[in-house]
Write a structure and sequence with these properties.
There is one protein chain. With about 525 residues, this protein is mainly alpha-helical. Among the domains are: about 80 residues, no CATH class; about 80 residues, 2-Layer Sandwich (Alpha-Beta Plaits), CATH 3.30.70. The chain is built from 23 helices and 9 strands. A 3-stranded antiparallel beta sheet has the order 2-1-3.
């Protein structure tokens, strides 16, 4: 039953969220010479001006009509170039910049009013909805998660999932329809990095805000566990400082913007030619970033994972994991615990890792040799383009986050993240980390399996007193936090003493051991 403050908070959030969405339709669009001169290259200005002559001075009431006419005009121009074999003159995609600059009317002049109204209502309402839950008794209880339409693939979850999927599709492939949001974030962008906002700045800001707000929810929900409190504060800190503020400040000082906690192969473009050249050109700091990023995956992963398991990154540092643990927490129980899902997971995630290694090897071959083809048919530019769109955009974004309310909160981490696969291999075979169990204490309540976001049937291990050494385990510790009997513990021990076979099952004064 919602309290009066929760009802007020939910109402404020919905109003703020609706206002934020509505801002996308509030601009008018007019193409002028000034707009074109500010957004397109001087070499192509005359050609674009001539191709779009019918649009000049015409006011459009929506971005859809404006973008459609602009793209049609440019497509005709490029088609003419192709027919004349003048492919060197082809016009690149300026649709986002042109649409943003062409925005006119009441909204661009008052974008900051809409920014603060939607921000304060959404964030304030969300916190007002979350904070009263601290009055409830701490700990996990029967809260109807499998009966709520919001947390068990009901209509609310489907609506949220549909919105997230649509948001990522538009963000990655049609950003010209989000230009009003970008206008709203321009002042903040100029404050932090000295330049106008892009769709990626908007995304990074929203990403960070969501982790901070939903992080407060995590702090309250798991306030009975000091480990969860510290872990949540850690992901909030690393996302805000390392993933958001530091890259923006580096850009402000004209240095290569880089998330210093991110690493290859998750940061799949780290060894792309333009990023390497950017770092070399930046001098000492740029070379430090290149060496740091290389050392992090080459030395940091095996050393830290040996001592702490993959949790040091996946559960304490990673931004993808941070979003899954905060925004995705209401859906963590939806992960598939069946054996078939585990088999599919292992095939897919390790296939992505192999894809990332091959793609990076091709990119480095091209960078060092200047040749784009290997063996006469492997095109490094084509391979990296496919990886970027299929894995970096569709899998990591559209599926990885958009499917939270359908497949659980760690879809990307389980099935797609190449870094998680790399960390998992080290954890499985060369790590002191393990989750130990005390089968004699297990009452088979199922809390551990229910709340495992990685699709591990923890209860199966707990009933047998068997340590959990699955490579997919991110060591989030939620299974231990929700166990009413203290059966599960996160430990670091010598790998020589690890017990990978089932332990004895006690029956009265006797015992027997399951043979594998």
């Amino acid at each position: 039953m919602l309290t009066i403050w929760q009802r007020i908070g939910l109402t404020a959030f919905l109003i703020g969220f609706a206002l934020f969405i509505a801002t996308l339709s509030l601009s008018r669009y007019t193409l002028t010479d000034k707009v074109l001169s500010e957004t397109v290259s001087k070499e192509q200005l005359d050609a674009i001006r001539s191709a779009t002559a019918s649009m000049h001075g015409k006011t459009y009431t929506s971005s859809f009509g404006f973008v459609a006419d602009y793209r049609t005009a440019i497509a005709r121009l490029n088609e003419a170039y192709k027919q004349r074999n003048e492919t060197n003159l082809l016009i690149p995609d300026y649709a986002f910049l042109v649409t943003k600059s062409a925005s006119t009317g009441f909204f661009p002049e008052n974008s900051q009013l809409f920014f603060w109204l939607s921000l304060l209502l959404s964030v304030g309402g969300g916190l007002l909805y979350i904070l009263p839950t601290q009055r409830e008794l701490p700990g996990i209880k029967n809260n109807g998660i499998y009966h709520s339409p919001a947390t068990n693939r009901g209509w609310i979850g489907i609506v949220i999932g549909t919105f997230l999927i649509g948001f990522y599709i538009v963000l990655y492939f049609f950003p010209e329809y989000l230009t009003n949001w970008v206008l709203m974030f321009d002042p903040l962008s100029r404050l932090l990095n000295g330049g106008p906002a892009s769709q990626w700045f908007v995304y990074g800001t929203l990403y960070t805000l969501v982790i901070l707000v939903m992080g407060v929810r995590m702090l309250i929900k798991y306030r009975h566990s000091r480990y969860q409190q510290l872990r949540t504060l850690s992901v909030m800190f690393f996302q805000t400082a390392f993933a958001f503020l530091i890259p923006e400040l580096l850009a402000l000082f004209h240095q290569p913007a880089q998330d210093l906690k991110n690493m290859w192969p998750l940061d799949y473009s780290f060894y792309f030619d333009y990023r390497i050249d950017e770092k070399i050109k930046a001098g000492t700091l740029g070379m430090f970033m290149l060496v740091w990023g290389t050392a992090l995956w080459l030395l940091g992963v095996p050393i830290l994972t040996y001592f702490f398991g993959k949790r040091w990154y996946c559960s304490w540092v990673c931004g993808c994991g941070g979003l899954a643990e905060t925004l995705g927490d209401p859906y963590r129980q939806l992960s598939d615990k069946r054996l078939g899902a585990w088999k599919l997971e292992r095939i897919v995630v390790h296939s992505v890792l192999v894809f990332a290694v091959v793609m990076t090897a091709l990119v480095m071959y091209t960078y060092l040799s200047g040749q784009t083809l290997l063996f006469g048919f492997l095109d490094s530019n084509g391979v990296r383009s496919v990886y970027g769109s299929a894995i970096g955009a569709v899998f990591a974004g559209v599926v990885g986050t958009g499917f939270y309310p359908i497949l659980g909160s760690r879809v990307w981490c389980r099935f797609g993240c190449p870094l998680a696969a790399y960390l998992g291999l080290v954890q499985r075979f060369k790590s002191r980390f393990r989750i130990t169990t005390n089968g004699g204490q297990c009452i088979s309540c199922g809390n551990c399996s229910t709340y495992c976001e990685m699709g591990i049937d923890v209860r199966w291990y707990a009933q047998r007193g068997q340590d959990i050494v699955r490579s997919s385990c991110v060591g989030c510790g939620i299974c231990s936090a929700v166990c009413p009997r203290g059966v599960l513990n996160l430990e670091n021990d010598s790998i020589t003493t690890r017990q990978t076979n089932p332990g004895p099952i006690l029956l009265g004064n006797n015992s027997f051991r399951i043979q594998q």
